[in-house]
């Protein structure tokens, strides 16, 4: 039993939430934590009630959901009775933020998926945390049902420090991608959102993962760029002298460079790239 399960008490938790909107093709989301210690400046969750109605600034708090990960098995069985199950894990937090090292809640949920009589048909595990490599054994038990999506938005560490100061270093994320791929786990690099970078970024990405997903402030914020505007991203870019980067053209340019280097179908954009593979209803 994980530490989070022991702390759970008797309050019931529903792990699976019906997926809506941008997460086309997914039936459910799964968020083991509320809040996120990474506190990225561009995170759309900053504009959601969970963040707006907390006294602490986004990025300065995170809480584990209190419940037993084993109950996820029952939820999966109920969901599977209605058809194929595709889970986006996680949509509003990072499953491998610092709390996970102690609580092992994400670990427990992966184990529950692997042990379930009706495991999900597909799981996208979205993170920027190199800690994911700790769970290679659990991921391998899920086999082709899981893909790890590692956020790598730039190749410039100073850009990361400016916009995502609490996020793990880029070198650790790239190393995790290689380690996961070497273990036979399906991976992709999620350039989401695309940040200022060097001309060498396309080559770095092509060598880092067999599949790349690109997104930006205009396609991926769920509101045609308006949410990112409200977060002040245009002004922040102007203050940093990056105004030329605040344009959908930059994604198109990187996509073109990547497609020169990678096989057909290896580069995808926005919701299409994050979507699950076709699921059989039989």
Helix content: 25-40%
CATH topology: pyruvate-formate lyase- activating enzyme
Beta-strand percent range? 5-15%
Largest sheet: 8 strands, mixed
Q: Compute the number of structural domains.
A: 1
CATH architecture: Alpha-Beta Horseshoe
Kindly name the structural category: alpha/beta
Round the mean pLDDT to the nearest integer and report it.
90
Radius of gyration: 18 Å
Q: Secondary-structure element order, as H and E?
A: HEEEHEHEHHEHEHHEHEHHHEH
Strand order of the largest sheet: 1-2-5-6-7-8-9-10
Number of E-state strands: 10
Can you give keywords for this protein?
disordered N terminus, 35% helix, 282 residues, two-stranded antiparallel ribbon, eight-stranded mixed β-sheet, alpha/beta, pyruvate-formate lyase- activating enzyme
List the helices and strands and how they pair.
Blueprint: H1 3-6, E1 16-18, E2 28-30, E3 33-35, H2 49-52, E4 62-64, H3 72-80, E5 86-89, H4 98-103, H5 105-115, E6 122-127, H6 136-142, E7 146-151, H7 157-163, H8 170-182, E8 186-191, H9 201-208, E9 212-214, H10 226-230, H11 233-239, H12 249-261, E10 267-269, H13 270-274
Parallel strand pairs: 2-5, 5-6, 6-7, 7-8, 8-9, 9-10
Antiparallel strand pairs: 1-2, 3-4
3D structure, described in words:
The chain is of the alpha/beta class and 282 residues long. It has a single domain, classed as pyruvate-formate lyase- activating enzyme, CATH 3.80.30.30. Helix content is 35%, strand content 14%. It contains 13 helices and ten strands. The strands form two sheets. Strands 1-2-5-6-7-8-9-10 form an eight-stranded mixed sheet. Strand 8, helix 9 and strand 9 form a beta-alpha-beta unit. Helix 5 packs parallel to helix 6 and helix 9 crosses helix 12. The longest helix has 13 residues. The chain is globular, with a radius of gyration of 18 Å. The two termini are 34 Å apart.
């Amino acid at each position: 039993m994980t530490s989070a399960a022991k702390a759970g008490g008797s309050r019931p938790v529903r792990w699976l939430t019906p997926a809506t909107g941008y997460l086309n093709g997914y039936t459910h989301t799964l968020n083991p934590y509320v809040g996120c210690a990474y506190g990225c400046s561009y995170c759309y969750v900053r504009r959601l009630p969970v963040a707006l109605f907390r006294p602490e600034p986004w990025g300065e708090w995170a809480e584990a959901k209190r419940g037993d990960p084993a109950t996820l098995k029952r939820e999966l069985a109920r969901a599977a009775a209605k058809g194929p199950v595709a889970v986006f894990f996680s949509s509003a937090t990072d499953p491998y933020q610092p709390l996970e090292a102690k609580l092992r809640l994400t670990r427990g949920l992966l184990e529950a998926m692997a042990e379930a009589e009706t495991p999900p048909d597909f799981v996208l595990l979205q993170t920027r945390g190199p800690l994911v490599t700790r769970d290679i054994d659990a991921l391998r038990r899920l086999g082709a049902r899981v893909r790890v999506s590692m956020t790598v938005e730039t190749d410039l560490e100073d850009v990361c420090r400016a916009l995502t100061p609490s996020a793990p270093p880029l070198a650790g994320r790239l190393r995790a991608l290689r380690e996961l791929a070497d273990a036979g786990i399906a991976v992709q690099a999620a350039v989401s959102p695309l940040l200022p970078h060097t001309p060498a970024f396309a080559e770095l990405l092509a060598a880092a993962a067999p599949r790349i997903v690109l997104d930006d402030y205009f396609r991926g914020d769920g509101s045609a760029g308006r949410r990112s505007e409200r977060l002040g991203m245009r002004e922040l870019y102007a203050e940093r002298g990056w105004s030329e980067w605040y344009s959908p053209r930059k994604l198109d340019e990187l996509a073109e460079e990547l497609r020169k280097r990678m096989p057909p179908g290896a580069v995808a954009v926005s919701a299409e790239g994050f979507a699950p593979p076709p699921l059989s209803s039989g």
